[in-house]
Amino acid sequence: MKRSFIREILESITPETISFAGGLPDEHLFPHEALRTSANRILSDPSHLQYSTSSGILPLREQIAAIYSGQGFETHADNILITSGSQQALDLLSRHYRDRSITIESPSYLGAMGIFALNHLHTDAITLEHDGITINPFAQSLERTQLTYLIPDYQNPTGRTYSLEKRKVIAAQVQKHNAILIEDGPYSDLFFESRQPAISAMIPDRSYHLGSFSKTLAPALRIGWIRASEALLRPLLIHKEAMDLHTNSLTQYILFDYLSHGDQYATHLKNLRKHYAKKRKAFSEALTKYLPSFVFEKPKGGMFIYGRLPGVDTAELVKMSLKKRVVFVPGNEFYGEGRGMDEIRFNFTHPNTEATIRGIKILANCL
Amino acid sequence: MKRSFIREILESITPETISFAGGLPDEHLFPHEALRTSANRILSDPSHLQYSTSSGILPLREQIAAIYSGQGFETHADNILITSGSQQALDLLSRHYRDRSITIESPSYLGAMGIFALNHLHTDAITLEHDGITINPFAQSLERTQLTYLIPDYQNPTGRTYSLEKRKVIAAQVQKHNAILIEDGPYSDLFFESRQPAISAMIPDRSYHLGSFSKTLAPALRIGWIRASEALLRPLLIHKEAMDLHTNSLTQYILFDYLSHGDQYATHLKNLRKHYAKKRKAFSEALTKYLPSFVFEKPKGGMFIYGRLPGVDTAELVKMSLKKRVVFVPGNEFYGEGRGMDEIRFNFTHPNTEATIRGIKILANCL
């Protein structure tokens, strides 16, 4: 298995590189002072440094459950399993479903495809349309696989969002075929207009809903979770415990402390959405102005702008632009062989506006 | 696969339980104030909250490499891969060697046997003698498996330590059979007399040396590592990246900061060894006085006292004592079927002396 292109690029980035590649949040928005205050409180008690339980610390699971319930998706602490980022949630699930087939979107999240391959899951990739996966081939595939992995909100890489109608059809199909849905929602809180309803809420006994604080608070915390019925979570706990005993509990306590002090998390999220909406606007405008041949839709949330440079081999373009210290991820990476050759995923949350304009101008020059 | 006995016991423990079961450090010795100072420094810079590299942050890898080199085992940062505790190191390695056979000690570490089983490694268990694994059957097994997992220092569960002679013979056998050694050293720094030489240092190109800060600093940090040649580490990095992108980097930075400020870690270790040596003494004396039928050797380091209650079914004993809120791990757990039925592992680092005496008296009453 080859190392992922994205991770290799991330590691070759210098402070001078303008990166549109990784799914990096804007570090100027990390609430580091509030987390510092929480760390101070938590580290005044040495018992927070001891071994902990495999499912995650109870007060944090309660907090996460309360967030779901507050959105109308009734959830208890026992429905939450804390993981080391949602990447580990994908690993856990794909170990549990090892050797099975799984219906995924085309294109899809690189990290998911990587861990599925490592755990010998056979992916059946169905074209993702503007309003969600293509229903007929999806239903046919699901009948066979009985397992699907979808990213309905501000999808990675495309930034697309499922329509309410498609969400309902998908829930019905999962039910009909006695199937299981893995719904990945790392960007769900980063909406610029309104929150979308989770498909999982329509089929709570047939779904895992994956969440993460990496995009909304800070990636270094490595705290994600799986929301599922207790029956679905139970076998995962055996894997989790064997994999690393439990997720970093110092960070879990810091996060719990942060979430439980006033409304600072809600305020932070509001600010984050506003800021990222502005960045999306600036990025879109720069693309229209300096790279007019790029065809794209504006995402309604998340971190990515996806589109096409008709007739351009974007894998070649990135090799050229890397020499001029501008990077992005060519679309082909998110498909199997031979597709998306003229497509590009841009991350708009990390670079500042000045760097965005400079980077896009460099890309235009490379063309 | 059943959930591990130890984890189930850990989760059933109440504040009133006297636990000799888990491998828990004494939380009174956690340097929480120093870690708080480090957390304060690290969280003043938001860039410490961003995504990081899969191998672990460079300054921490440099610190760990320097510790090895300072002990005469020459090591560079590129020889270190940071993991989420050494349990994850075992997962990484057993994924890499999936479906292979592996020569292990009998008895051995429960968490290793669990993850080996989960990753379909077939274990060949060779009797552990007082000075290390039994050489002849070990050599025969190794010829077939070409892979071995050993815990030479203050072994879990037995507390035994390999003689220098056996270490040399094992290194020679690994070399002879073109085999690979996985040497687990979570207790190696907890010596009461003198540091033992790592077998890995004798065969640096044929070994993984596993370390952890869970026993020496604090388990909640979930920071372990693998020390190996770059050639051996490279394929593991692909797994690590797919498993969780990278280990909690906030904690990595805090740890780096802690390790790089003066000699506080060296001072802490000295204090820890002194304190645990005292606890071993108190525990041994209580056993001799209140449970005289318990036959055991005094360990020269680590966290466990292991021995036998001749003729007693210790799995039955723990069921009885659990009702009186005293727990330990019955020896049979560390073997396959039908062995170690009258054996017990006691953890002596966590309970205080008063609780130790009270707990041992309760066990004596149960008999």
**How many strands appear in the DSSP assignment of chain A?**
14
CATH class of the largest domain in chain A reads Alpha Beta
The multimeric state of the shown protein is homodimer
Strand content of chain A: 15-25%
Unreliable parts of chain A: none
For the largest sheet of chain A, list the strands in their spatial order: 2-9-8-7-6-3-4-5
| Structural class designation of chain A | alpha/beta
Order of helices and strands of chain A: HEHHEHEHEEHEHEEEHHHEEHEEEH
Count of discrete structural domains of chain A: 2
Q: Greatest contact pair?
A: A-B, 62 and 62 residues
- Radius of gyration based on Cα positions of chain A: 20 Å
Total helical segments of chain A: 12
Beginning-to-end CA distance, first to last residue of chain A: 32 Å
What is the topological layout?
2 copies of one chain form a homodimer.
Chain A: H1 5-12, E1 18-19, H2 32-42, H3 58-70, E2 80-83, H4 85-96, E3 101-106, H5 110-118, E4 122-129, E5 132-133, H6 135-145, E6 147-150, H7 164-176, E7 180-184, E8 207-212, E9 224-227, H8 230-244, H9 249-260, H10 264-290, E10 295-296, E11 304-308, H11 314-323, E12 326-327, E13 329-330, E14 343-347, H12 353-366
Parallel strand pairs in A: 1-12, 3-4, 3-6, 6-7, 7-8
Antiparallel strand pairs in A: 2-9, 4-5, 8-9, 10-11, 11-14, 13-14
